[in-house]
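ZP: hey, is the adenosine-5'-triphosphate complex queued? I don't see it on the tracker
AM: it wasn't, my bad. submitting now with these inputs:
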Amino acid sequence: MSARDQFFNSDGGTAGIGLGIEIGESSTSQVGRGVYNATTVPMTNASSWRNGQTNTATKTTPTAIATTTASQLVAVKQTPLESVAEDEEDLDQMDALSNLPPRDAVDIEFRDLSLTVKLGFNRGEKEILHNVCGKFPGGQLIAIMGPSGAGKSTLLDALSGFKTTGVDGSILLNGRRRDLPSFRRMSCYITQDDRLQPLLTVSENMHIAADLKLGENVTYEEKERRIEDILLLLGLYDHDQTLTMRLSGGQKKRLSIAMELINNPTVMFLDEPTTGLDSSSCTKVLELLKRLTSQGRTIICTIHQPTAKLFQIFDQVYVLSAGNCVYQGGTQKMVPFLHSVELPCPMYHNPADYIIELACGEYGFDKIDTLKSASENGSCLTWFNDPGSVLRAETLMRKHPIPRRKKNVSMENTSFMNQCSVLLRRGYIKARRDTTMTHLRIIVNIAVAVLYGAMYDRSGREGSRVLDNYNLLFAILMHHSMTTMMLTVLTFPIEMTILIKEHFNRWYSLKAYYFALTLIDLPITLLSTLLFTVIIYLWSYQPLEWVRFWMFFAISLLIVFVGQSIGLIIGAWFDVVNGTFLAPVLTIPMMMFAGFGVTLRDLPSYLKWGSHISHLRYGLEGFIAAIYGLNRGTLACDEAPYCHYRYPKKFLEEITMRGDQFWKDIIALCVMMFIFRLGAYIVLKAKIKSIR
Ligand SMILES: Nc1ncnc2c1ncn2[C@@H]1O[C@H](COP(=O)(O)OP(=O)(O)OP(=O)(O)O)[C@@H](O)[C@H]1O
């Protein structure tokens, strides 16, 4: 049977067993037996409950259930892997899982956690989390639930360290204050949207992740083994040659998890891992996460409103309402909890749905206050599955040794050189397959060169067509500047989302990323600019002198680089919509200052500064120097009886350009390129910081 089939045929034994326990325990509990039986029994078999069929569990006496489920509980606790894998396929997956080294469970606790955001200039602040407390014991699958806007993602961001600005309160790991750099080394964050490289296959994505996330001392065989195990475990093994963009939503979600599993994190944060998936894929993803917790990992997910079937997969739930905790405890204990506060879950109602309705204020806002005080805004541990086993911070501290202090250890697992070489390899694969950034760019350069060539045929040699040629030079300038700028503005925001995720998960440093980004684009920029230049230069009959050709090419190349750097600054800071508006709007003044429409001499004195900051001015001046400078001789005058610009000098005088400023233009463009590149790096860094 294929790995995929193995994955999809697994029956989620853990969840079922967990459910049995819940019913048994609750059936014998003292609180509201009538309501409790009615509401929890359906969870044993969600579909039969929905269909209104009688469930066998309902006919079982409470004592019988208690006996059965108690023995299941023992089985789960003592031999989790064996009891989870109920058939051969499961056991195969468990094999793969057992090759991932188990982790020492990390207990996460937070006290009086609040998070405040600034609303903008003069608009004050907004507190999103209001002194919430909570405890997430290690080795459990925990759901953060709540209505939309309750603060689930914000809590996840604060706990994972993704957000640090405006966070107040304490976060403890095994009883000690969280040291963020160390915590980031043992945890990972999987975002709601799948930020994956679409043009890489599953296998390539996994190999890149392994090469970046595993130390350089890990052998090739070890990496291969780990990749194979993870792909097998996640049911992606049969798809390892599929391009990521062709994967289904559920497969993409699993690939996101697979890539972060490579370095075996102890704590995993997942923002809405089930959003956008069908119910079967949701179940599979959550069952997979449940399996991962059996090895000591603590997995915390936000989830909107799980179905009864999904709900019972979790060990523990943390429910938020408008930034306050309204329930914290075991999934099985939610119904007794609601009963204890005299808000019993109605018959045939999914408790998860009911508590969300309560948290939304559908039954009155006073109920939210009741729940908040009953759960002590997250401090109350009474409703944990096994409150007796929940260790206090002091006990945890004593149990876990003081971690060794790591000074000056880089956040990344591999060296700068390794990061650069892996990123260059990834960039090369992407560039080969990228229809926009590579193929389309080359095609557009050839097509535009042919079009301009046809329009301005022979304009470069004719004295009577000097003005046409001047127009051509300006059109070339705009083409080089705008195409690369707009391409970057349109594509970089998507790349940026991937960068934010991977950089936070410590795949690479920003320096390595930026270095690779700059280098990887060089060959394609050189090739497309060279093709364009050769075609237009020859077709428009520019002077056939090597020195002029290379001067022309050098200016073209620098303009491309400057345009690209400006695009990078805009693309890094703004989204596609704002960027698409801003880029042309900023280019127009640069065009006006270039000396094309209004000569540099005629520019008002108070606007002269503009021409010094316009890259298009240096570009145009450089082109003019290449074509009409270097004391170019008399032009041919074969096409018209009157030849106004027979002498290039006359033309230069008229446009107030000297034709001997080539090196000054080159230096100015180089300085601009350097400043804009550096600016783009600073903007990138600032953007990443501002998000956090
Ligand atoms: N930077 C911010 N500025 C202003 N308000 C913010 C900011 N970030 C979050 N909020 C607000 O905080 C609240 C909680 O947001 P959060 O994204 O955590 O909610 P959520 O529970 O995850 O919602 P959903 O399930 O819809 O994703 C929302 O009302 C949101 O508008």
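AM: back. DSSP finds 29 helices and ten strands in the chain.
ZP: great, adding it to the tracker
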